[in-house]
Design brief:
Helices cover 44% and strands 14% of the residues. The protein has helices at residues 3-11, 18-30, 35-48, 52-63, 93-102, 122-126, 138-147, 161-171, 179-191, 213-229, 252-262, 270-285, 292-304, 307-318, 329-332, 355-367, 406-419; strands spanning 81-85, 108-112, 150-154, 197-204, 234-240, 249-250, 338-342, 348-353, 381-383, 391-392, 399-403, 420-422, 432-436. The strands form four sheets. The chain has a four-stranded mixed beta sheet, sandwiched between helices. A four-stranded antiparallel beta sheet has the order 6-9-11-7, sandwiched between helices. Helix 10 links the parallel strand 4 and strand 5 (234-240).
Length: 449
Amino acid sequence: MLTAEIIRAKRDGRELDAAAIRRFVTGIADGSVGDEQIGAFAMAVYLNDMTTPERIALTEAIRDSGEVLDWTTLDLPGPVIDKHSTGGVGDVVSLILGPWVAACGAHVPMISGRGLGHTGGTLDKLEAIPGYDVTPDPARFRELVRDAGVAIIGQTGQLAPADKRFYAVRDVTATVESIPLIVASILGKKLACGLEALVMDVKTGNGAFMPTHAQSQALARAIATIATGAGTPTTALITDMEQVLAASAGNAVEVREALAVLRGEAADSRLYRVTRALAVEMLKAGRLAAADDEAGERLDRALASGGAAERFARMVAGLGGPHDIVEATDRHLPEAPVVRAVHAERAGRVAAMDTRALGMAVVELGGGRRVAGAAIDHAVGLSEIAALGEAVDGERPLAVIHARSEADFAAAAERVRRAVTLGEPGAPRPLIHEIIRPDDAPAGQGERS
Ligand code: URA
């Protein structure tokens, strides 16, 4: 089938077979399909959607467009599993979760990304640690996944190369917001890591990539269905992003908070609870625990014994960072020159938070990027961010701002004040809205959502 015929069929609302989809994706990777054809195809999918078999075929074709990691030769004693998040503000879960489940016997080859728009990126956070190398050679990566049980690194050009080009065209043709394309893009990259099981954290709320609950639910269901259909059993959790997840947002500030959780100093924070819920699902998905209680006990032991923190330390040292990051955190992480609280103009309780605006306040401080590839300031950000429902006054600030200059502090203070609404808080929102397990995911022949 000619490329133009594949596009025509999708344009006319016909179902494509797996061979046609694979041919198209192979053409994206080898350059034989032009940018204009990718754009037309993406728009046809955006307008006409894809059936479940088409979505599975697209995901598998993107996954197979480059190297697919194979862990079997290492004969690992535990399962190879991972988590992926759709991204949020103060979402430093990966830094805690990877080492934590590794300490329980899992192997986690986590390929992470950089900040995107208002959301932070795991790689940017890790690069706040001096010396941490997010692009080790493949042999080092494999060694760490085997020995430390976890390595968090950046995307390599060899994994799912079709996605990079496909996404770049979608970005400039108004076709990013399409569930089949998002699912294939996220999963194509993740499933190329050779996972036995995956847990997805799909955020919902005003700081999420998909802000409405209906959109997040559609995305979570599609991800669980398509990944499971493509041979990687996947559980999706819909978690709350109606406020900043951690009490901080930025790079070094979030690493500090993650380390506090790993040292067992932040039990019961929202960050801890969301991370633990994801970890429970990972242990079950990897058959390291049969039920929630068993998984929870195993996780509690790994945190209390220092095992999880030790895995983090091994990963950091193994990737070029300092050996004592857990004990001497402040010695290694950068600190901004201006660190000062911002208070509300009157006392009151936090009734609402524009989470996206707080993420953008971090970007404006220099902690994120306005253009791809720009340098970022790892020291800046927000800490001690007041939670929904919390009382603020002359004593309790809205947040502490970490800024490069007084002028940056003043601009960020204004942004933080505008982003927080004081008043009567509504009923507390659940942290975990829904869990969709592989068994709930319909096998789905030909349905469209
Ligand atoms: N993240 C991705 O990796 N791909 C998308 O299409 C959207 C978000």
